[in-house]
Amino acid sequence: MAEVRVCEVIKTLDVGGAEVLLVERLRRAPRTGRDYTVVFLRANTEELIEALLDDGIKVVDLRRGPKWLRYARLVGAVRRLSPDVVNVHSPLPAAVLRPALRMMRPRPSLISTVHQVWYHPLTRLLNRPTRRLDDLTVAVSPQVANSRTVRGARLVRTRVHGVDVAAQRFWATRAAEVRAEFGIPGDAFVLACVANLRMQKNHALLVEAASLVLARRPDALFVLAGDGPLRDQVLADIDRRGLRERVRYLGLVPGAGRLVAAADVLLLSSTYEGLPVVVMEALAAGVPVVSTAVGGVPELIRDNHNGILTPPGSAEAFADGILRAMRPDVHPVLAAGALADTATVDLSETADWFDEIYRELATGAR
Question: In this structure, what DSSP letter does residue 271 have?
Answer without folding.
Answer: S
